[in-house]
Write a structure and sequence with these properties.
This protein is 54% helix and 0% strand. It is elongated. The protein has a domain of 28 residues. The model has no long low-confidence stretch (mean pLDDT 76). By secondary structure, it is mostly helical. Keywords: Membrane, Transmembrane, Transmembrane helix.
């Protein structure tokens, strides 16, 4: 293959690779703004959901019926029993 033919083949390959095979790019220009719009809507919905849940949690009573009057006092770590620490081991 001569140098001129090689350059001609490379030029043709470059033209094929540089060709736009994705259609009209002007009509697809709405994807970016639409994505931003959806993200903003999701952020607004998240803020409203957080505010709603906070207001519901504030309205809960301090104690529910049937709940113990006084919670057990002491170190919470002492009340948790380790299943691997058995008293029946020798």
């Amino acid at each position: 293959m001569t140098a001129a033919a090689y350059r001609g083949a490379m030029l043709t390959a470059a033209q094929v690779l540089a060709q736009n095979n994705f259609g009209d790019t002007r009509s697809g220009g709405l994807a970016g703004p639409m994505g931003l719009f959806i993200i903003v809507l999701l952020a607004i919905a998240t803020v409203f959901l957080i505010r709603n849940m906070n207001s519901r949690l504030r309205r809960l009573p301090g104690r529910f019926p049937g709940q113990q009057a006084d919670p057990p006092q002491g170190d919470p770590a002492e009340s948790v029993q380790d299943p691997t620490d058995r008293a029946d081991r020798a």
